[in-house]
Amino acid sequence: SLYVSEYFSQSAQKLSFYSWYGNAKLFHFRVPEDTVLLRWLLQASRGKGSECTNMEITVHFRYGAPPVINPLGTRFPVNATVRPSYNISITLSSAVQNTTFVNVTTPAAGDWFIAAHLPEAAGRIEVKGFSTPCPYMFQADMFVLRLADMPVLEPGVAMPQTIASPAKPLHVKVFIPKHTVGMQLELRNCLTSERKACAVRVVLGSITLPQSYQRIVTCVGRINCSLALESPPWEKWLQLMVESLDTTNASVSVEMLASFRACRPGGIGSFLNFSSLNQSQASPKPGSPSQSPGDASRNVSKQRSSCLQNQPVVREDLDVVSVRYRLLNGPSVPINSLSPSLLLLNLNTGMDSGGSLVVTLLLNKTSMSLANATVAACVSPASPVLSLNATHNCSTAFFQGYPLRVSTSSAEATLIVLYPQTDDWFLSLQLICPKGQGECNAAEAKVTVFAYLTPCFNDCGPYGQCSLLRRHGYLYAGCSCKAGWGGWSCTDITKAQSVGAQNLATLLLTLSNLMFLPAIAVAVYRYYLVEASVYTYTMFFSTFYHACDQPGVAVMCIMDYDTLQYCDFLGSVVSIWVTILCMSRVKKIVKYILFMLGTLLIAMSLQLDRRGVWNMMGPCLFALVIMIAAWVYYGVKRRHCYPPSWKRWVFYLLPGITLAFIAISVYAFMETNENYYYTHSIWHVLVASSVAFLLPPRDKHKKPWAWSQKLTCRYQICQNDREELYAVT
């Protein structure tokens, strides 16, 4: 046999601590056909700084769709079916780099996904620039070994093959046509080179993670053996591997024969349904073909004699990872007990596995002719379940399906498949009677089917945001929860904030900005009108930014969120800038030039990087240098400490500086996601209070505001202070 090796590599990604699915780094590979060996090369590394500690990296694997993971142990939405992903842990301890290999024999061809992440995030809000996080990098490479000339087993034709040795197993593939109900594989004349009965093991199917449903049969001491498969995957190549268990290293000769049982589907032709697609709500036109009662009875008898009833379905693409399935014959599906009704849900475009498949069944109780009957349904990939009896577990040859049931006592059922694998999905429905199928041969029911693919189920609810994520050209969706809510679709209320707590957080973050009122009053009283206008601007936009930034229901946005955030950050930094320059007591013309120039530079830097620490620290340090230089100049010129009054230092400067340092410490080192609403409120109060203390007194030549003289009436009594001159005669 001719083996061909191929190597696929993707660029390394920086790992993140896990708080939602967007923190997991996704790798997407495609395994070619006829692959007999798949080897993952997983490389993890970390930085060399002192901030880097021992770390455990979790890596998840899945075939057909991104892995569904739950590192936080939160709840999934009701009616969602979740099967745990296959995962391994990679530990970075003393070594800076770790290399791990994962081998998969006879893997399924198609899409394979790897997701890697760090442990749960600590929740501390880190100011960009104050600390340097340790970089943890992860890279996944794929090595495949495929058989270039894999023999093809044709149905009904015996194919002789030879297994040279136990170390060289035999690989064969067979194509499963559509509408195949069952497959029979036979091994005949299985003999060793010593003419003894062989000992072989036959493996049917490929490995799919997290769960693999390979069928294995062992033939020991027998010349002939067989294996039967029910509901094999339609229109796919099925791999067969035969390996010798002989201990004498003798060759084994065997004949292989595959046979299929096909199903004759019933139902109305697709052409007639397509022609009536746009006329389903309209009245029939004159001259249009109509169905006679005789034709209708023949169609009914034909449906009764077929093994399944095809219901034509139209796939309607709405948006990215958003599909709606529409039945041509209307939303109601007729169900009987003789043969299942089958709906095809096409999810094989390669871009459908990043959302959630939702299937809802609604039973029309008035159409149920037998009260104690039940409509059993099964949603399965690759191939349908064609035998839905009372004891069936909704499984096909290699996949476990998802069962649904509706009855007169429970008329509605919903199924949510998170990240459905890329494949053709089938919905099978059949009527089941508790006393046997003979009881309801003449019974019928009608079930309304709603099926659609959505990026996020229920749009993540009121306390979540559905985000579209991208890895190269592959798109998938995830929910980012807020206000303490958690879970895959933000439905877990274990740590959720109450409405009262949300209102309290909004009031604290908004009303704490009113502490700028004393600073504004002091600035106006001392004739610092430009500074007072800056403080008013900051108070206004900080109040409404935090009113719009709330995660819960207590939200009010007067304009675009991004605009409010930018204005809040700009006002905060400019307030610090003008306060320190005002304390320097430089000439007015120089002060106002620095006001304008600094504001323009701050606006530019915030546009480049809004959350960078140097956007705040840079202007502050430069203004402090100007202030210290001015104070030193005044002190040398006057030969006295500046400011000269000890009362100014004790009662104003030292309290103001202390409040400012406490505010910076709270902002940089104490804020977390849980305590943000009161620690950030404390930051507002401390910063606004420090401004009121730090503003210098007014100039000596300016008098206080004399409101009785400033606010004049229409008539004013004037006093003549001119000195009268008397002439001496």
Automatic annotation (TrEMBL):
Membrane-traversing stretches: 504-528, 589-608, 614-636, 648-670, 676-695
Keywords: Cell membrane, Disulfide bond, EGF-like domain, Membrane, Transmembrane, Transmembrane helix
InterPro entries in alphabetical order: EGF (IPR000742), NGX6/PGAP6/MYMK (IPR021910)
Membrane-topology descriptor: Multi-pass membrane protein
Region (Disordered): 279-309
Annotated disulfide bonds: 456-466, 481-490
Pfam families the UniProt entry points to: DUF3522 (PF12036)
GO CC term (a single one): plasma membrane
Biased composition (Low complexity): 279-293
Localization in the cell: Cell membrane
Segments forming domain EGF-like: 452-491
Polar residues composition bias: residue spans: 298-309
UniProt family annotation: Belongs to the TMEM8 family.
Record's protein name: TMM8A factor
Organism field: Turnix velox
Gene: Tmem8a
